[in-house]
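Q: My labmate handed me this sequence with no annotations at all. I'd like to see what the chain might look like in three dimensions before we decide whether it's worth expressing. Could you predict it?
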Amino acid sequence: MAGMFTWDDLRHLIAVSRHGSTLAAARALGVNQSTVHRRIAELERQVGLALVRRQTAGYRLSELGEALIDEVLAVEGAVDALVRRIEALKRDLTGTIRLTCPEPTVPRIAASGLLDRFHARHPGLTVSFVTSDRYLDLTAGEADVAFRSGEPVDERLVGRKICDSVWAIYASQAYVQQHGRPATLADLREHRLIGFDGIMQNHRVATWLPRAVPDATIVSRNSSMLGVVSAVKAGVGIAPLPTTLGDAEETLVQVLPPVPELTRAWYVLTPAALRKSPRIAAFVDCVLDDVAALRAALVG
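A: Here is what I predict for the chain of 300 residues:
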């Protein structure tokens, strides 16, 4: 009989069985008496059995209704257990959310107060950073949530745009004093540049640089953004950097303005299969409620 009736049909039968009349059952269920009559009649039609019998003192189950009532009550018990379990999951949020993001953004996110406010709202949950200069595979379980720049290409991920990631060209003050300041992208051919290597070699900035400056003099290469920032600060050469990082360094100068070709959107992403799990839903919802703090952490 699977699919022949709903739980709502059965609870009207249970109410009549317990209270002995359709009027008392209606009061217990918070509906009118005609609704109880209609639902019982529909249930009997669907199963093809007479389940109740009217007597002078009210209603009682028929012999067929009595034969089925234990199984019906078992359904009630299962539904009640399910409701209790759902409510428990909502109340008892515990565990760890593994958050992946570029390493340079970790201290900025921590300083934003976003995680403190999340922990205050959900003290049973903790956030653990999983940092990497490569994009971790969320669907393979390498992390639960990502703050990531670039349009999502995996249809198994869901999320929301937070803001734009903007890149400009930076040099140290000491470098500018010694070698001068480029006025255009073409002028970069006369300067010492820092390139990208290792897991950064497929990053959009690594593929853009040789196209924008085909005769560039690359004096150093690095496989991490923090390494590139350190090299620029040391005066080794000039490099494209996210404005969030470049503008935060007092010794660096933005020698050329933001490059439109390098602008990408920042997203908060999670696997679709995880989005409705209580701990992930709690974190993502908190982030979206506090999006101004995250935007400030990611782009200043």
